[in-house]
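Researcher: Let's continue the batch. This sequence belongs to CRISPR-associated helicase Cas3, and it's 822 residues. Same format as the previous ones, please.
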Amino acid sequence: MSNPVFYSHSIKTPSGKTGSKQLQVHNAGVNGIGLKSLYKQLGFRLPLTVIEQLLSDILLLHDLGKYTQFFQDYLLKTGRSNGLLKQHARIGAYVIHEKYKNTHPELALFGYFTILSHHGNLSNIYDCAAKEHAKREDYKWQFAEQRKSLLKHLDQIQEELSFGQLNTLLAIPDFRKCRNEVIPAIRGKSADIQHYYLINYLFSLLIEADKLDASDTPLYTRVAIAQDLVDKRLANSTNALRNSVRKTVIEKLEIPDLLSRWIFTLTAPTGTGKTLIALDFALKLREKVHKATGHLPSVIYGLPFVNIIEQAFDEYKQTIPEDQASILAHYQYADIFGDQEEAGDKTEEEMIDEKAYHRKLMQLDTWQADIVITSFVQFFQTLIGNRNKILKKFNHLAGAIIILDEVQTLSLEKIPLIGASLYYLSKFLGTRILLMTATRPQIFELAYREIFKDQLKDLDEADRAFFNNGHPTYLELLHNNQDIYKSYRRTCIIPLLDSTLTDEQDFIDTCFSQYWQAGASCIFVVNKVSRSIALFEAVKTYLSANSYNNPVYYLSTNITPYQRFEVIKQIKEDLKAKRRPLLISTQVVEAGVDLNFDMGFRDIAPIDAIIQVAGRINREANPQQPEKPHLPLYIVDFGDCKAIYSAITYLNAQAALANKSIVHEAEYLTLVNEYFSTTSASGGFDYSREIFNAMKTLNYDKGPRSVADFRIIEEQKNVRAVFIESDEAGSAALAAYRHLLDASDIAAANKRKLAFDLHYKQIFNQRIISVPFYHTQDLLPVHDKSENILLVDRSIFSARYDQHTGFKRDKGKEKESNTIFF
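Model: Same format as before. Here are the structure tokens for CRISPR-associated helicase Cas3:
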């Protein structure tokens, strides 16, 4: 009698469901992808052979339950389906636990936890054992029935899996020992941050391999990239400063112990060409790693804002020919439409229509490329996270070269956590990390002081050598950066902080009218949206009353992303044509926006934020010999800083600028170092310590400070998403979205979603803004099935949306908020 055929996935046909992929083929594919993806120079305190065997067992056993008749009946609709018996992960989790329980009790638990979780998010590890106890009778019955089904074809299953001893290992683990001994140890005296990185790495390898094989998406094989591409791009550069900085950085590649260095910094002021210098360093380092180890690292470039991600993507594409490497830009982290439907629920015709699209989507979501340019949200919430959807790419951090730019934008309270997490990423996963900034916050210094100093007993010799009693030994690539800073003469900071401004008119009378002249372009940056709108109107009124014809622009997240792009484009045109435009903005322009003004005003804020605004002034001048030296950024105080940042931040910023009539650009580095030293000493790092402890104790989702609570940007509270129907393209996107939601069945919804994603999703997203809920209570949703998005349609557009300043806010409802709406 021939062996039965078992399937892992199915498709709909006119005659019913049929198997689309054999389980044996799927298991082999998952195992092959996962083992091929395993980085061979890991730094865990476990032999690579043990990790490799554990991974292989996880990959082979994750779908063991699909060999039961119960799952096959459910998949192919050939019999009655029982909700408990069709589940397929638990029995494989039991087998792997039984295999390792005597030799590696911790790995037994980790393997069980990884397989059990592979269709969802990582949860509190204690809950698994607790649930086994609470539902033991249900699980005993489930296991007994599934075991009987597997035993009918045991020889075939073992042969297909190349996995013996199933008969012996098919048993329910004794979770009393796990609950009473193993878990208390790994959450108490034996808590080890290594466990977090190991579990997340194994979990990522499993779920990525599973999803790639299920969708028939090929695993990308990285290729060698010529290391001289930046040399060729800049061959004719006459910028002496940039050339000198690049030369200094690239010379560091020749130090004897370079490949034993894992963490680098590049501290350099604006105007030194850091984007291409970092790429040049990364490509040359990649080649050295490849020659020494045979490994081709991926290059991952993380940035805080969408606009500078797009700028960097364009720079990379101009430097690296399309046929020489695969470059992905991945920064669409918010998916307001929910997860994709399982491929197995689609008809064959739908599969043909959608397969290419969903392969592309899977390639993007799993970073199948040589170079990835992504957002801080994507990067850091992959590094510190528990979500299945985002952890697919966690394994791509292993052995990578990671460039993190504009790191001064990170929230201060998270800095120690970021430093600790990056250090252990380099230690356990062999990742090389380059931090770039003009105003370097004390990332590893604070990690030592706030996290490691209290846990010295957990540090090994390598840890102690790196942290060096609070003086970390990372390699600064631009060792003479202080000399470069001291030579800069483009801008200066002038505090006007003798008193707090009473309102916008006070600013016009005492500051703007005295220090601005019509021949100068000017940028204004304030801390609150309401303040920015009022200031925009006050400046326009002043200009009109004095017959000035300078164009005036407005930027904040109160206008749609689409409008912001258009405004920036128009400002650039006006600056180039010397029309001397004025821009009133919130923090949205602080970093990376390539605008060049003659002067500016900044409401008091963190010193690094102030220096970022200074970087929008005299930007295109020779920084060491500008035609007009020390163009001013005036610092004023509207009284909003405490509400948006914190009282401590405000006091420290005030103290940093106290008794200073002027701060020249040559003094910026000293100013920011003094500010960070004072601010860091002010405390407020409980968040970092608590999230790190959650990682260390494998508390993925329980309590007020679990891994799941981590956000690199805190979610805005008490806000609503509002779609602005501002133009014909927006109207078409809105109609397509409603058409998607009106689908009568899954097949129609899938087809419409594909069309929407391909043609309208970006347009739709670019017309959504976040608005405090108390301004939106009279708005209706875009659709009765999408109440989370409200609508300003054409009929009320002029009443609710200003063509310059965006959403019209009811001034009577304006409230103080510690959320930055920018």
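Researcher: Any comment?
Model: The chain has 34 helices and 22 strands.
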